[in-house]
Amino acid sequence: MLHIKSKIVAGLSLVVLITTSATAIASTAKEEKKGQTASAASSGPEIVKGQGFPDNTPEVIKSRSGSGNPVAGKDKSALCQGCHGEEGISFEPAIPKLAGQYAGYIAKQVRDFQTGFRSNAIMNGMAATVDDADLADITAYFASRNKMKGEVTTNPTGKNLFQNGDMSRMMVACVNCHGVNGKGKTPDNSMFPVLGGQQKEYLRIQLVNFRQGERSNSPGGVMNIIAQKLSDAEMEALAEYISGL
Prior knowledge:
Number of helices: 12
Largest sheet: none
Radius of gyration: 18 Å
Strand content: under 5%
Helix content: 40-55%
Shape: globular
Distance between the termini: 43 Å
Order of helices and strands: HHHHHHHHHHHH
Structural class: mainly alpha
CATH superfamily of the largest domain: Cytochrome c-like domain
CATH topology of the largest domain: Cytochrome Bc1 Complex, Chain D, domain 2
Number of domains: 2
CATH class of the largest domain: Mainly Alpha
Number of strands: 0
């Protein structure tokens, strides 16, 4: 009975993912049409099919930075910069880059560390010292940095999984949630993080954590479902490909 219930839960979660992806795709299509028909003065960032949206225009940066003050956030994030880098580019492979990451996504992770929903010995302690006002400014600062970027790598397995998924295993493509180049679906949708150019080792570790259930804070637990379908070799391939975007 428990086995059947688990299958039902997994199936429902997959439906949620597919529905969410379809909604995101529809939203992107709407933005594409807007970019083609509206004037430059009145339209939002143009989303180019197969390329996504421009990463670092003032309008896009403002959109992903939220309501905080990035100028104040630079000083407030001094301790964060010790690990994540002054410009949000970490040097340790297991520490994530924050440059150009959605402010809303960073804030959610910090709050999850505060509540214990996500666990890390250093981050749980650091998160406990930050209030909402400071968090808004800190996340705005990192979001306002130029988006992270990796060195292009060639990994056919990782590329295929990222772009196409594997529906024989009911595994939706990463691109449906994270965008064609891993830089996000739209400038203001922080539900799914920027992945393109992220540290390879960090990506691999998170996939392992999702598979083992050590991390479970993705929307609807979708990353736990997907990670459980991936082999170690596929996780390595995905991490290598995404880190080079």
